[in-house]
Amino acid sequence: MRAVVALNSGSSSIKFALFTLDEKDRPELSAGGKIEKIGIAPRLSIRTAKGETLHERDWEQGAALSHAELLEYLFFWAGEHLQGHQVIGIGHRVVHGGTEFAAPCLVDDAVLAELEALCPLAPLHQPHNLAAIRAVSALQPDLLQVACFDTAFHHDKPEIASRLALPRELHKRGIRRYGFHGLSYEYIVRKLTELDPALAQGRVIAAHLGNGASLCAMQAGKSIDTTMGFTALDGLMMGTRCGALDPGVVLHLQTQLGMSAAEVEDLLYKKSGLLGVSGISSDMRALSQARPPEADQAIALFARRAAREAGALITLLEGLDGIVFTAGIGENDADMRSRICRKLAWLGVEIDDSANSMNADVISSSQSRVKVRVIPTNEERMIALHTISTIRGKRDA
Question: Which CATH number applies to 198-374?
């Protein structure tokens, strides 16, 4: 029996999933979970595909534990859990693939060096993605590792959608709009094709709303445009990220307020968004429970920005057949879905309040001219599928 592992390593958490393979290399989830609060008091939780708890551990005094040390513990546990299975490879979410990486690939030293050069474009994510690859190499040097890129889904969007209104020379040097959350959008396309083939061939806006948030305009399952651009800082308001911002603000912060580039980066990536506007939390659930005026304003601004960006994408699509909500907020926050859809009522979007409150698969009413669905994303499964395909390609070459 064989198995693959999917890893999604972030700044303060590591998401993972273990998949066993059948005789046709189809992955079946065996266990999945998350190590969170890395750098504070790490906590590991592992569950079966049915949600039953397999293993939990807290490191209350583990603030100094590194990603590598926690991965070593996870590897030990996975080895016990997958006893009798041969792990044929590990797939990693890598946020930025730049202009060169349009498809998943096996990782070697040359690939790792190219990906390292992209760290300034995704400072919250890329360094931790690559740290996980290095940690696995140290633990099992001969194990095949596959990089799966969040930018790849958007790689073949229209050329004009990659342009910034800057000198052409800068575009040639890679300063362009890339787009992110591609693994999530790729999974949504796959799932939507199964659930609603006709809609999958139409004009759809997928809304990946979580701590990181973006929208993607899709025509026949292909990315036409998306709200994130050169970095994962662009577009929608997020948990701690500001989203689209007048570049004059950055100039003002540096020239008039005397902030350094590092201070501005910290402000825009870690102290803005829901956290910055509310002054309370980056977590939409906490803001919904708190509800002082500042929390209400942060929630209202999040919805307003999402609806405004959706309007721009609808123009590019020249109409709209469907909306798909996904990720933490998109899948679970009925109030936010309702707020956004009410702002799109002029399009004929009509929500069934009862279905919406129950997080039903379809939350639009029978009279709605636009179908609205909720589809849980599964980036780890997408990583596993890419890992299997890439290793099979190497084997067949």
Answer: 3.30.420.40
